[in-house]
Amino acid sequence: MPSLVWSDELALNHAQIDATHQEFVALLTAAEEAVARSVEEGLVAYEALVEHTVGHFGQEDRWMAKTGFAPENCHNGQHHQVLSLLKEVIVYAKDKGDYGPLTRVLPELGPWFANHAQTMDAILASHLDAVGFDFATETMTRPPQPAAEPEPGVSHCGDGVGKACSSHA
């Protein structure tokens, strides 16, 4: 049974984002089914999933950079961490003949991705709406205005929505 099935709960009502996410879910399912047949076949399907994910995360990272989405946000950081892990699994399988990480990471990707899509990607989608982002031209109809300098002693905790945390606590 796949660790993730596409549902309305995952939909963000953005054709481009949803299509990319549906492809991720399909590739994850294909990798899970393939590894159940053989780890070697599973690795081939897993590599297709990783290749897709490199492009998928790169696309979102590019949108964040183009639209001024909180440069110090943790969304990009999570993409980097997950891709590093996914690539490490390939190294273990190919270079060390150890398929254990592959069989362990696949069932964890579904729940992780569902949470990531429903939180971080939902916030990104909302931001893209707010700036009037056009996916075809990658331009904005309502670019963000430069942020005012924070008050001394106040830190913008990287939440991307302007909430501040006082360092005077």
Automatic annotation (TrEMBL):
Classification via SUPFAM superfamilies: Hemerythrin-like (SSF47188)
Stretches the record annotates as Disordered: 140-169
Gene3D superfamilies: Hemerythrin-like
Pfam family, one: Hemerythrin
Database matches in InterPro entries: Hemerythrin-like, Hemerythrin-like_sf, Hemerythrin_metal-bd
Domain Hemerythrin-like: 16-125
UniProt entry keywords in alphabetical sequence: Iron, Metal-binding
Key word Metal-binding present: yes
Top-level taxon: Bacteria
Family of this protein: Belongs to the hemerythrin family.
Protein's name according to its UniProt entry: Hemerythrin domain-containing protein
Organism: Ideonella paludis
Source organism phylogeny: Bacteria, Pseudomonadati, Pseudomonadota, Betaproteobacteria, Burkholderiales
